[in-house]
Design brief:
alpha/beta; TIM Barrel; Lyase, Ornithine Decarboxylase, Chain A, domain 1; ten-stranded mixed β-sheet; eight-stranded parallel β-sheet; 24% strand
Length: 395
């Protein structure tokens, strides 16, 4: 039982994430003020960047997000089964074998391969429907997409697929939009617009043209076109410190509790590999938290958490389920105390970007890495609910 935690968390191991849905709604409103009348596709892939895709999408749909973006058909099906009715774009496309699944759940796929088009046409013919698609154009990211110079030729494939397929949109993905000084973003814009012209020359008129990720929403209004795709800023983080501020705040906090505490003598080793030797008499606490929960192993002996408003260094190697911290300089630290991994304690705060810096990674990685066994608490208008993969087992 989580010492000091009442209500829905009582049956669970004392490590949890809290998601402030009111703050998420406020972030959406701030982004809308920035975009004005430009429609908005909210990116909720990777389990809503670790926040919980279903709960995040439900809130954003209630706040009138125009569309949602996911990576996989499976993610789209999950949202449909949860009752999400807004359009859902599969940003990463689909395999031909998934064509009927895509249509069965009313999902809109990205296409960039002829065999995807053929599979959709066959599935649409069998169902007696028309499939809407977005053409993914590679303007310099180099991962997926029809090369910009070949967009016209691919558009002919799409045109020949009518009436079973209609081109609803075209999009591309920026590589360096989080660096306002890098001219490559302008090059990508030029390639994209030329590709759209080539598509239009084949008689296709996509109404949704989208380039703008979070960085471009903040710094590049000319890229907003007819649809914008905010991701990380929905959850309260700027893509980089080079971006101008936007009135958004982090939505998620991540917490654990001290489940064991002991005093150790100088020279005592801690953890796998004995990478930490106590340099002084120390008070060491163990947290119900490890790398499977989302605390990166690279934070071993270099990061800290917050206990009673003080910084408590992580000492020894982070293991799969447990982490040790030094609370020698935290007066009164005791069994059951809360340890803040992301969030605020007293006058101190820790953001996901701080963990990312210690772990030599990016904010996205930290948020998406919060594991599925960590229960999520959702706060909305004074009410709290909890989701957990173990809910049925503990009912």
């Amino acid at each position: 039982m989580a010492a000091g935690v009442s209500g829905p968390l009582e049956p669970y191991r004392p490590t949890w994430a809290e998601i402030d849905l009111d703050r998420l709604a406020a972030n959406l409103a701030a982004i809308r003020r920035r975009l004005g009348s430009v429609p908005l596709l909210a990116v909720v892939k990777a389990n809503g960047y670790g926040h919980g895709a279903v709960e995040v999408a439900r809130l954003l749909e209630s706040e009138r997000a125009d569309m949602f973006g996911v990576a996989l058909p499976e993610e789209g099906v999950e949202l449909r089964r949860a009752g999400i009715r807004a359009p859902i774009l599969l940003l990463g496309g689909f395999t031909p074998e998934q064509a009927d699944l895509v249509l069965a759940h009313g999902l809109t796929p990205a296409v960039y391969r002829p065999d995807q088009v053929a599979a959709l046409v066959a599935a649409a013919a069998q169902r007696g429907v028309t499939a809407a698609v977005h053409l993914k154009i590679d303007t310099g990211m180099g991962r997926l997409g029809v090369p910009a110079a070949e967009a016209g030729a691919f558009a002919q494939v799409l045109a020949e697929a009518a009436p079973r397929l209609t081109l609803e949109g075209c999009f591309s993905h920026f590589a360096v939009a989080d660096d306002p000084a890098d001219p490559f973003t302008d090059v990508q814009v030029e390639h994209f617009l030329a590709a759209v012209d080539a598509v239009s020359a084949r008689g296709l008129q996509p109404r949704l043209l989208h380039l703008a990720n979070s960085a471009a929403v903040i710094d590049r209004p000319p890229t907003w076109l007819t649809l914008a795709r905010p991701g990380i800023i929905l959850y309260g983080y700027r893509p980089s410190e080079a971006m101008q501020p936007l009135d958004v705040q982090p939505v998620l906090t991540f917490r654990s509790r001290i489940i064991y505490i002991k005093d150790v003598a100088p020279g005592t080793s801690l953890g796998y590999g004995r990478t930490f030797l106590a340099p002084r008499p120390a008070r060491i606490a163990s947290l119900a938290l490890g790398y499977d929960d989302g605390l990166p192993r690279l934070l071993s002996n270099r990061g800290h958490v917050l206990v009673r408003g003080r910084r408590a260094p992580i000492v020894g190697r982070i293991s799969m389920d447990l982490t040790t911290i030094d609370v020698t300089d935290v007066p009164g630290a005791a069994l059951g105390d809360e340890a803040v991994v992301i969030g605020r304690s007293g006058d101190e705060s820790l953001g996901a970007e701080a963990l990312a810096a210690w772990a030599e990674t990016i904010t996205w990685d930290i948020l998406c890495g919060i594991g599925p066994r960590v229960p999520r608490l959702y706060h909305r208008a004074g009410r709290t609910t909890v989701t957990s993969r173990f809910a049925d087992a503990l009912a």
